[in-house]
Amino acid sequence: MRAVTCLISCLLCCTIVAAQPADKKLEARIRPLLENFPGDAGIYVKNLRSGKTVNIAADTVFPTASMIKIPILLGIMKKLEKGELYYHQQLVYKDSLLYEGEDLLGSFKSGEKIELSKLLLLMASMSDNTASLWLQSLAGGGIRINQLLDSLGFVSTRMNSRTTGREAFRNIYGWGQTSPKEMSALLERIYRDALVNDTLKDRMLRTLSRNYWDEEALSQIPPEIQTFSKNGAVDASRSETVLVMAPHGPYLFTVMTKNLSDTTWQSNNPGWILARKLSRLLWEYFEPGYQWSPVMEVTGNPRTDRHD
Q1: What is the fold, at CATH topology level, of the domain defined by 19-286?
Q2: In degrees to the nearest 10, what's the CA dihedral of 48, 5, 70, 131?
Q3: Rounded Cα–Cα distance for residues 67 and 176 (Å)
Q4: Of the candidates 228, 222, 277, which has an alpha carbon nearest to the alpha carbon of residue 252?
Q5: Where in the chain are the domains?
Q6: Considering only 2-16, 114-128, 143-157, 237-251, which range has the smallest mean pLDDT?
Q7: Which H or E element spans position 75?
Q8: Fewer CB atoms inside 10 A, N or C side of the chain?
Q9: What is the distance in angstroms between the CA of the first residue and the CA of the last residue of the chain?
Q10: Is 48 exposed, middle or buried (0-12, 13-18, 19+ CB in 10 A)?
Q11: Is the pTM of this model over 0.70?
Q12: What are the C-alpha distances in Å from 79 to residues 13, 139, 295?
C-alpha cells in the first residue's frame, strides 16, 4: 500500500514538473533581465490557469537558504495530521536551542513557554532561524523531511544542515538545496493538492501569506492582492518563490541566484534587483490593465536577513 501511495505521489509530482506549454512571448521579455547578471540565475514561471510556463535554467540546483523552511512547514503539518504534535501545543524554550543572530526567539529566557503556532509564525514570517531549527527537529529532523520530499517525487529539493550524510552537500549549498522548478512545484502542490487535510492546508497557506520580508518581489505586487511566499538569502545568493492570486488567475514564480559577485546587503544587490524587476514585469504582463504604481527601488539600512 505504501509503495502504491509513493507511486501516485511521484506521478502527481511528475505531472506538475513535466514539460508544459512554453510562453515564448513572456520568456522574450524576461531574458533581457539576465543580461550581464553578475552571477548565476534561474527562473521558473507558471500561469496556473493556462498552464503556460517559462523555464530559464529552472532545473539548476541552487541554495535554498531560508526557502528550506517550506519543507520544514510541510513536515510539521504531517506531524499535526498524525496527532504527534498539536497546533497550540505549549513548548519550553531552552538556551541550547539558540542560533546566534537577530532572531526574536533568541531573546527568550531559558524556561519560557511558547506555542507551536507561534514558532511557525516566526519561521515563516520573520524567518527566525532559532525557531526554524527547533521546528526542523520537531518535524523529525532533516532525514525525515528528505524522506517526505522523496516520497512526493522531488529529487533536487533536500535538507542538508544537521542531516547525517548530507555534509558534503551542505558545504556547497548550505542549509538546503532545490531548483526553481521544484520549489515552484512544491508551492503549487501545497496550493492544489491534498498533501494534508483541508484544515492543515489552510494553515499552511495562511502561514505562507504573512511574509515580513516584503521589500523585494512582494513590493511589486499590489498590497491588496493575496500572495503566498518565502525568501532566502545568504551572502552570494538571493532567492524568492511567490504564488500570486491575481484577478485574471493565479500565477507563480521562483527566482534563484548563486555565485553573486556582489555579496553586500544593500537593497541594490543585483539579486534583489532581479527579483523586483521580474515581479514587476510579471504583474504587468498578467494584469496589464491594473492601475497601480509600485516603488521600484527600495532604500534604507543594510539588510541582515542571513540564513545560512
Answers
A1: Beta-lactamase (3.40.710)
A2: 160
A3: 8
A4: 228
A5: 19-286
A6: 2-16
A7: helix 69-81
A8: N
A9: 38
A10: middle
A11: yes
A12: 21, 7, 41
